[in-house]
Amino acid sequence: MEVRLHDSIDEFNSMAGPLYRRDPITNTIELTLLQAGELPDGSLLLTVWDSGDLIGAAIQTPPYPLACNALPIDSAGVVAAEVARVNPELAGARGARAATAGFAAAWNALTGSEGHVSVEERLYRLRSLRPPVGVQGDPCRATDQDRGLLVDWVEGFYAETFGHPRDDEAGRRFVDAAERKGDRFTLWTVDDVPVSMAMLRAPAADVSRIGPVFTPPERRGHGYGSAVTAAAVELAHRSGTADVVLFTDLANPVSNAIYQRIGFEAVADSVRIDFRLPG
């Protein structure tokens, strides 16, 4: 088994793209990254080969974990060894539970680090939209005038969901990058005041992913999150994208329940494992 590293996103996409597109629902994050056509400096792109046949691939963009969805479990050892050689400070891994746990075990054995499960997620796919009824307010597309609000809410989402320290500059980069890539933000407003937000990612392999979805704590409990998510789905459908997916935090039973009520069905579970040295 051989691991190859790639400097060119075009070269990597020509090899790994067809592999990811075999399951565009499960590999939505990886395909979204490749759809952008450019990656941050320091990104890691690798493929796994066996007797000349491509059998796996993985992507890591700073500061995020290694995306392990398309890694065969029996490749964990050779992949961990190659990643440790080029990026010994890898912060973590994420993806399908079995593949990610296998890589994490190999990484920890090789580097002496400890793995900590920080997030467990569930991937949902829309089957038939059932918009909530009786929710006060209306949807609208976010505009340039809403940029400060979007930055605030994006940072609120990442702080709450992943425990990230607030970084408004990172939030501004996120919102600006979303605009360049063709991602769209939908707001839910009550009396022209925004109360909730959903981001619809540009489609990749004919799949659009919703997220982040954020409602400020003081606005929760009124159905705004369900309503703005349904509005984002309708935007995807009007744009010609039939398949819509999203991730939820398994530790949040409320979000898992509300997305199921509006027509999303579970596809697969994934896990994020963070690495840290003992002591």
Brief overview:
36% of the residues lie in helices and 31% in strands. It has 279 residues and is of the alpha+beta class.
Number of helices: 8
Let me know the CATH homologous superfamily of the largest domain.
Answer: Gcn5-related N-acetyltransferase (GNAT)
Largest sheet: number of strands, sense, barrel closure: 9 strands, mixed
Tell me the domain tally: 2
Strand order of the largest sheet: 4-5-12-6-11-10-9-8-7
Oligomerization state: single chain
Distance between the termini: 34 Å
CATH architecture of the largest domain: 3-Layer(aba) Sandwich
Structural class estimated from helices and strands: alpha+beta
Written description of the protein model:
The protein is α+β, with helices and mostly antiparallel strands and 279 residues long. It folds into 2 domains: 2-121, Aminopeptidase (3-Layer(aba) Sandwich); 129-262, 3-Layer(aba) Sandwich (Aminopeptidase), CATH 3.40.630.30. The chain is built from 8 helices and 12 strands. It has a 9-stranded mixed sheet with strand order 4-5-12-6-11-10-9-8-7, sandwiched between helices. Strand 8 and strand 9 form a beta hairpin. Helix 1 packs antiparallel against helix 2 (28-35) and helix 5 packs across helix 6. The two termini are 34 Å apart. The mean pLDDT is 95.
